[in-house]
Amino acid sequence: MASLLSQAFQNAKSENRPALLTYTVAGDNTKKKSLEILKSISNYADICELGFPHNTPIADGGQIQTSAYRAIKNGIKINDVFSIAKDFKKSKKTKPIILMGYYNMIFQYNENKFLDKCKNVKVDGLIVVDLPYPENKKFAAKCKKREVNFIQLVSPTTSPVRLKKIIKDSHDMVYYISMLSTTGGKLKVSPKKILERYSKIKNLNKSKNIVIGFGITEKTIKSLKKADGLVVGSAICKEISSSIKKRQNPVTNVTNIVKKIKK
Amino acid sequence: MVGVPHKSPENLKVQLKSEFKKIPNKLKLINCVGGGSSAYGFWSEFIDYDKKQIELIGVEAGGPKKSKLHAAPLSRNAKIGILHGAASYLCQNNEGQINDTESISAGLDYPGVSPIHCFLKDTKRARYTYATDEDALSAHVMVTKYENLNPSLEPSHAFAEAIKIAPKLSKDTIIIVNSCGDAKKDRDILRERLGKR
Lengths: 263, 197
What we know:
The structure holds 2 protein chains of 2 kinds.
Chain A: H1 4-14, E1 19-25, H2 31-41, E2 47-51, H3 62-73, H4 78-91, E3 97-101, H5 103-109, H6 111-120, E4 125-128, H7 137-145, E5 149-150, E6 152-154, H8 160-169, E7 173-177, H9 191-204, E8 209-213, E9 229-232, H10 234-245, H11 250-262
Parallel strand pairs in A: 1-2, 1-9, 2-3, 3-4, 4-5, 6-7, 7-8, 8-9
Chain B: E1 2-4, H1 9-20, E2 27-32, H2 37-43, E3 54-61, E4 79-83, E5 86-90, H3 115-122, E6 126-131, H4 133-146, H5 153-165, E7 174-178, H6 187-194
Parallel strand pairs in B: 1-7, 2-3, 2-7, 3-6
Antiparallel strand pairs in B: 4-5
Helix pairs in contact in B: 4-5
């Protein structure tokens, strides 16, 4: 049977649109609230990415950093992240969830223990930002064994030779980083150029679902609809920050943003 | 004790031979260690020597005496972790969050360290220790008073270790400290901590 991830992409394709992937940080701004946000936005998102917060998030810009620091300050631990994912999956059985974070936290938790936990709480995929190919080969194989999708990252500077190898070693989904920047940066490459590169990757193996992330906002998303999927993260984290500042309910505000982006 | 204000290990060999006619039988090479590039450069020509002849001593930033914070992953029991694309001993908590570091010396203020120093530690080829901010400041004062040198706060950590161990050593032991930076850059902080000088 196809994985929930593949099904989500197929479903979006049948509706002639890219899959919408959201990214929120577990525990932002509290454990309870982040679960509420996740459940609420999953009514509009096709795939939910849930970040496990790290205090040295080398790929993240200001918005996601702020969310991560907030969550850590509120005392969120890895086991809380698993319990949020577990609660989420209890009520949203068919909605795929991807955990995203940094390798040191997995390494300290213990790789096998971490992956067993992922399988137990029915995590569908994993993005480990700082575990690149080929260092991730063994880890990716361990994921596969537990039916957890390991999601490879490729970027504008990935060489053609390397790209081929990475795609060959990838599972159902590949994450294309739109530009050389941290998350939430201003899109400094034209959508046309991004889609050109996207097509080159897609043509290597049409069965892989390629999503584009970094710099995707309500504004930029319209011009990238050709992609299999688009990831929105910083725009959501920004909304959580501004809701807290305005003493408004982040659940409602974030859900409205995701609803708008979906259109 | 001699402080050697240069960066070339080749040159150090030449200097040693001209000063002592050969590589001394008991030699200690002391260098501060932050990321570790300066120490590795200083030691690189001497790693193949027996450690009984040439001891390599790396001195990390112990931070303020009264603080729990430091930047000394090699000498203060840190566990291996992964940061910035490298595995090394790393100042971190048990969840893998990176600890804040603190040191009077900006150049040593880093939670990780080069993997090559982790290797030298594990194989026991080099010995690693730390000096506190206060140790480094006192060493700076002493060295500037008695030597024609003006070490920055980074090598002042190395001098602190030299000053600490020198009284216990035999007369024929040679200590060389790499005075790898000038204190001009630390002018403001030295003025703040030591008063007008």
